[in-house]
Amino acid sequence: MSATAWAWLVLLFPLLGSIVIGLGFKVIPTRAAGIVGTASIGLAFACGVAMLVNLLGQDPDARHHASSLWDYASAAGLDIKLGVYVDQLSTFMVLVVTGVSTLIHLYSFGYMRSDEGYHRFFSYLNFFVFSMLLLVLAGNFVLLIVGWAFVGFASYALISFWYRRTTATGAGMKAFVINVVGDIGLVLAAFLIFRELGTFDYGAVFAKAPQAFSTNEWTVTAICLLLLLGAFAKSAQLPLHTWLPDAMEGPTPVSALIHAATMVTAGVYLIARTHVLFVLAPTAADIAAFTGLATLLVAGTIALVMTDLKRAIAYSTMSQIGYMVVGVSIGAYSAGMFHLMTHAFFKALLFMAAGSIIAAMANEQSIDKMSGFGRAMRFTSIAMLCGGLALAAFPFTSGFFSKDEILAYATARGGMYLIFTVLGYVGALLTAIYTFRLIFRVLPGKPCPEAQELIDSGHVHHAHPFNPATGEEEDAEVGFPGAEHHIAEQSAPMRIAMGVLAFLALFGGLVQVPGVDETITRFLDPVFADSPLSEIVPTVGASWTGLAIGAAISLTGIGIAYWVYVLRPGASAALIRRLRPVHTLLVNKWYFDEAIDLLVVRPALAIGRFANRTFERVVVDGLVVGTEDVVGSGGRVVRLVQSGYVRAYALLLIVGFAGLALYFLLSSS
Amino acid sequence: MNIEWYVVLSSLLFAVGAMGILLRRSPIVILLCLELMLNAGNLALVAFSQMVGNQQGQVFAIVVMVVAACEVVVGLGLIVAIFRRKLPLDVDSLRELKG
């Protein structure tokens, strides 16, 4: 079978799973829905592997194939096919998406076991994976937009999964609206591309672009900026990031799947996929890189003060995606994609561990109330530690190799791009501190009541379900995962998923050790060979120097966290007192929500109110009511003539005819 | 005989009919006055036909008579219907169709 045939199968299985579970929810037993959902993604992963094997059997430069099933729209000058594009980049993304998704489905199988919406959950989840795969495998911009919008919808459906929670539905709408802002950018970019190049097809666009555009021409810059609008909204980059922390209202597996491992990397994929255009528009690429840099620093600082466990990890996700955006924008394409992969491993793992702890806390997410889970939940703690080490780029874990590779490239490119190296290392220090802040506050110490209960009785703590954000009572049928809570210690599927991810988080980076194997770079390089930036390669020595600096920074960060949160328990409170304004700024997330509220929401509301109160009442109502009045009063006048007196009618008739006769008589003479 | 006499007679008849319609309230009299006006028209038609010297006007007068007969049938039918319902035979009080 050809690689594209496998690609169609990759798309088929999740779609089939979603439809079967979604339509057959009355027939399929609850457990079976989870099995079908997990198996369909597992099969998609298997087909992805087959696709990889197929590609590996070919010449590295001939590993790109397009295939289409049928014409979507065919007219003069327009030919949109329902087609897939298989090359190293899409294969890589397919493997990451399906691989991590399979594990997350497995985790959900245990975690969501008591939820009343079990079928709905797996149907949505499969649909989400299908949309993401469609986005990744699409062979033209039209299909990319379809997948892009599907992903946005799936995200909305999953964030609002517990639909009786007002905070969850609000967060879902916020995510959807911000994503639509990005969609508009993407659609306009596609229109511009079509206007300039006359095609939507990837192959044709990337072949024609270098001849059609001169470097930094305004059209190509506009296309790239519009693409970036889409990428920023999807990948939660400044200033379109505010939906991501709110998206933590969804079930924890959703946070792991969408908001860490897959969906938010779509923007990174888009930049990497359209790198041909970004090479032609260096200004746009620099804007993207600086936005990524700003995001990684801003998100890193916010993560330092977040007390909500999941939101802190969400800000860390934003920060890490900032690294990826920097990577693919400055030309470190395969390094960016490599970081995407390792991040998918350790961030999914961290979310899973967080979900397990939150379940043990009976839906309490504040780390102020957590402590001592190291003794209460051994497996979860070890998993969280593995994920934390990888995130903090502890030497020889996966994050260690991937993050430093981006920074080493920035060093090798030199000049202005040294800023990225320096500030990237600052971000790495922040990462290490906030990661181990979470770990040191949750795992060691005297067990909190919930942890103690788990140690003493072996049972998970139960509390009356209240939404911690608003205090409103949860609806047990569609609220927090059902009546019972499930932790990794007591659920084999969750343990398996976390075990595999922990292994990958620790050792997944070894496939790409500078100067040793560099598997990913060698695999992905042919895709990016047409970019002049890919000729810049950091030397092995420089890479190892970078790694050494990274290791030192990571250990320093962990040390600082250890000193502040373990050795001197009062130190963080003292720091907060000393740096009150900074702390206030960070706790309020740099006031981004307020700024957007002030600059966008309020003006829009004001325009709406003006339109409603003034324009609608005066102009529209005036026109409509005025017309009605004129017609009505005219009617009233004419109605008087209809008196009902036959003789009056006769008089009118006679006078009228006499008048006419007189007129003709006078005018003829 | 001179044509003016015919025309004057016709106009007088027409005016008498018109005045009758305008002034009288009984539907039967109004119907009679209508007939008078039609016949005034007929007289003019026949007179002009005689003057011009072709038969078209006379044919037209016969058509008018047919129409007048039809109209009388409908009009008298209405009057009989009004009478049967014991409504007043007065056009001024039959004014429910006002606007």
Biggest chain-to-chain interface with counts: A-B, 13 and 14 residues
Outline of chain A = globular
Question: Which CATH architecture of chain B would you pick?
Answer: Orthogonal Bundle
Helix content of chain B: over 70%
Strand content of chain B: under 5%
Instruction: Name the helicity range of chain A.
Output: over 70%
Q: What is the CA-CA span between the terminal residues of chain B?
A: 50 Å
Largest beta-sheet details of chain A: 2 strands, antiparallel
Question: In total, how many beta strands of chain A?
Answer: 2
CA radius of gyration of chain B is 17 Å
Strand content of chain A: under 5%
From the N-terminal CA to the C-terminal CA of chain A, the straight-line distance is 100 Å
Shape summary of chain B: elongated
Q: Do you know the CATH topology of chain B?
A: Helix Hairpins
- Low-confidence segments of chain A, ≥5 residues, pLDDT <50? none
Give the overall pLDDT of chain B as a whole number.
90
How would you classify the helix and strand content of chain B by structural class? Answer: mainly alpha
Write the layout of secondary structure elements.
The complex is a heterodimer of chains A (669) and B (99).
Chain A: H1 3-23, H2 30-56, E1 65-75, E2 78-86, H3 88-111, H4 118-137, H5 141-159, H6 166-197, H7 202-212, H8 218-234, H9 243-246, H10 252-261, H11 266-273, H12 275-280, H13 282-305, H14 309-330, H15 333-360, H16 373-376, H17 378-391, H18 398-413, H19 418-442, H20 449-457, H21 492-507, H22 519-528, H23 540-567, H24 571-578, H25 580-587, H26 592-639, H27 646-668
Antiparallel strand pairs in A: 1-2
Chain B: H1 3-23, H2 27-52, H3 56-84
Helix pairs in contact in B: 1-2, 2-3
What can you see in these coordinates?
The complex is a heterodimer of chains A (669) and B (99). Chain A is mainly alpha-helical and 669 residues long. Chain A has 3 domains: 279 residues, no CATH class; 285 residues, no CATH class; 61 residues, no CATH class. Chain A contains 27 helices and 2 strands. The longest helix of chain A is centred in the C-terminal third of the chain and has 48 residues. Chain A starts with a helix and ends with a helix. The mean pLDDT of chain A is 85. Chain B has 99 residues and is an all-alpha fold. Chain B has one domain: Helix Hairpins, CATH 1.10.287.3510. Helices cover 77% and strands 0% of the residues of chain B. In chain B, helix 1 packs antiparallel against helix 2 and helix 2 runs antiparallel to helix 3. The longest helix of chain B has 29 residues. Chain B starts with a helix and ends in a 15-residue tail after the last helix. The model of chain B has no long low-confidence stretch (mean pLDDT 90). The interface between A and B is medium-sized, with 13 and 14 residues.
